[in-house]
Amino acid sequence: DAGVIQSPRHEVTEMGQEVTLRCKPISGHNSLFWYRQTMMRGLELLIYFNNNVPIDDSGMPEDRFSAKMPNASFSTLKIQPSEPRDSAVYFCASSHRGETQYFGPGTRLLVL
Amino acid sequence: QKEVEQDPGPLSVPEGAIVSLNCTYSNSAFQYFMWYRQYSRKGPELLMYTYSSGNKEDGRFTAQVDKSSKYISLFIRDSQPSDSATYLCAMNRHETSGSRLTFGEGTQLTVNP
User: Fold this and answer.
1) pLDDT over threshold 90, residue A97
2) pLDDT confidence band for A39 (50 / 70 / 90)
3) Are A99 and B32 in contact (CB < 8 Å)?
4) Residue B91 with chain A: CB contacts under 8 Å
5) Using the 8-state DSSP alphabet, how is residue B57 labeled?
6) Do B100 and A104 lie within an 8 Å CB cutoff?
7) Separation CA A84–CA A19 (nearest Å)
8) Which single residue of A6, A13, A100, B68 could bond A104 by disulfide (Cβ 3.0 to 4.6 Å)?
9) Which of A2, A20, A24, A1 is nearest to A11 (CA)?
10) What span, in angstroms and rounded, lies between the C-alpha atoms of B36 and B26?
11) Are residues A43 and B103, on separate chains, in Cβ contact within 8 Å?
């Protein structure tokens, strides 16, 4: 199994630009999670989906952030417009029937 | 008060030492307990997973859960420099529809050769 796949692995952009992060969960997993990790705040859950439906988006920092899951094998996290304080590592994770989560390698985002 | 408390360390030990990493939690609804290992600039990697009180062993690693005390531990025997990483405890309530994990802050471990 290829595991959770994320792209891009690194992203450098300028403030105000739109950023789109992509995730392909493990085949057969029905839950998908987006996290953000920073030194100051640790690992924070942003949003998660069950069977492609958003269940809890209370961790999404503000309206500049949006996430979609159009099908069972693909999800996006979009930031528009991006700001320097959005610089972090963004992880996607997936799980099967509520069991433990498997993380992707992360996208390292730097907003200048 | 945080739902999950974990000593952030850092913890530095000599090679071969026994390492004990611990978390306490306050929510008695937590049923599933995990330990993740995260190397620098990598994603968290599942190390151990258990859902019952008692011990679970996997090679040099032993996970211990005490639900009555709301306390979990990870023991590493014969620690190696390659064990140097941040260790995060995590737990959830397990629902077949999927549920969020609650993570500890992570303990940074360095094993010195």
Assistant:
1) no
2) confident
3) yes
4) none
5) E
6) no
7) 12
8) A6
9) A20
10) 20
11) yes
Interface of A with B (CB under 8 A): 4, 30-31, 33, 42-43, 45, 48, 50-51, 55-56, 91, 95, 97-106, 108
- A66 CA to chain B: closest CA distance, Å? 18
Could you tell me the CA-to-CA distances from B14 to B40, B73, B75, B81 in Å, in that order? 20, 20, 15, 9
Which DSSP symbol is given to B68? T
Interface check for B97 against chain A (CB to CB < 8 A): the answer is yes
Q: Is B5 on the interface with A (CB under 8 A)?
A: no
Instruction: Give B2-56 pLDDT, tens digit per residue.
Output: 889 998 789 999 999 999 999 999 988 888 899 999 999 899 999 998 888 889 9
B29: left (phi over 0), alpha (psi -120 to 50) or beta: alpha
Residues on chain A touching B45 (C-beta within 8 angstroms): 103
